[in-house]
């Protein structure tokens, strides 16, 4: 037993599944200088081949070539095919290799059972990883070492921020960061619609709405102040902001957002039980 440490300076990374998430991670890792493209591989026969080759990633014919050439293997396939993908590769998924899954709703215990060992890390990323602003959460399988965790934190840190949490929290994570971008896209669209109703041209309204949300989120994550305090800082007595905030409170704005996260978390729980 006992897994050999992954050589953090020279390890090779492989992706099983050449979709958008794999592409975002690979691009981020190369761009931030964590790994050169020459140490990253994936397998694809179709159009995605050209995409990956365009930024230097080696594309081979078969998944088993990816695994044989990699120290760290990230499974980034659809939930319905992950079991078959792991079982097919099982003979070559030795404990020398650190396995990672970004597949939604598939539990560590199943992943480990299919792979035949527990040097596995489950990561829940989200789509803003595509622009380097992902929010990822990881949970380590029993056989994954602290060093393994650090390697993965570094990889996903290249496309945003990453936190460590117990896997039992992943349904709630899904309800917040997994599904949350959609809630914010709705908010941006609605803010822009309000501005159009108040007389702004559409393009200006959309640009201002997106940048306002980006700026507010940036302040909330960097200012070191509670969001309630940041809200207080912007609401002057009898002013415009408090008039807007009053309308939001009358319509149950906070309750609606809370309900959305809870509903998505509940749905995530139902889906992962069906798997």
Describe the fold and architecture.
By secondary structure, this protein is α/β, with parallel strands linked by helices. It folds into two domains: 13-170, 3-Layer(aba) Sandwich (Rossmann fold), CATH 3.40.50.720; 178-274, ProC C-terminal domain-like (ProC C-terminal domain-like fold), CATH 1.10.3730. The chain contains twelve helices and eight strands. The protein has helices at residues 20-31, 48-54, 63-68, 79-89, 108-115, 146-157, 170-178, 180-197, 202-222, 227-234, 240-250, 253-274, and strands at residues 13-16, 40-43, 58-60, 72-75, 98-101, 120-124, 134-140, 160-164. Strands 3-2-1-4-5-6-7-8 form an eight-stranded mixed beta sheet, sandwiched between helices. Helix 4 runs parallel beside helix 5 (108-115), helix 7 packs across helix 12 (253-274) and helix 8 (180-197) crosses helix 9 (202-222). The protein is elongated.
Q: Quick recap of the structure?
A:
With 275 residues, this protein is α/β, with parallel strands linked by helices. The protein has helices spanning 20-31, 48-54, 63-68, 79-89, 108-115, 146-157, 170-178, 180-197, 202-222, 227-234, 240-250, 253-274, and strands spanning 13-16, 40-43, 58-60, 72-75, 98-101, 120-124, 134-140, 160-164.
């Amino acid at each position: 037993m006992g897994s050999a440490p992954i050589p953090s300076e020279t390890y090779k990374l492989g992706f099983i599944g050449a979709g958008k998430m794999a592409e975002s991670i690979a691009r981020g890792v190369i761009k931030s200088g964590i790994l050169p493209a020459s140490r990253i591989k994936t397998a694809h026969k179709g159009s995605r081949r050209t995409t990956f080759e365009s930024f230097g990633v080696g594309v081979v014919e078969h998944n088993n070539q990816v695994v044989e050439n990699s120290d760290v293997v990230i499974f980034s396939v659809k939930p319905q095919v992950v079991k078959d993908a792991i079982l097919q590769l099982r003979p070559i998924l030795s404990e020398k290799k650190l396995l990672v899954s970004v597949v939604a709703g598939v539990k560590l215990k199943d992943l480990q059972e299919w792979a035949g060992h527990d040097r596995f890390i489950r990561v829940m990323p989200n789509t803003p990883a595509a622009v380097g602003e992902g929010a990822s959460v990881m949970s380590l399988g029993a056989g994954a070492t602290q060093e393994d965790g650090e390697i993965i934190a570094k990889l996903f840190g290249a496309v945003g921020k990453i936190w460590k949490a117990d896997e039992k929290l992943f349904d709630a994570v899904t309800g917040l960061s997994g599904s949350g971008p959609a809630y914010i896209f709705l908010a941006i669209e609605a803010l822009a619609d309000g501005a159009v109703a108040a007389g702004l041209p559409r393009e200006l309204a959309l640009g201002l709405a997106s940048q306002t949300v980006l700026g507010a989120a940036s302040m909330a994550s960097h200012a070191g102040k509670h969001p309630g305090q940041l809200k207080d800082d912007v609401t002057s007595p009898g002013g415009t902001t408090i008039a807007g905030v009053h309308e939001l409170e009358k319509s149950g704005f906070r309750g609606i957002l809370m309900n959305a996260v809870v509903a998505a978390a509940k749905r995530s729980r139902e889906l992962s039980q069906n798997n």
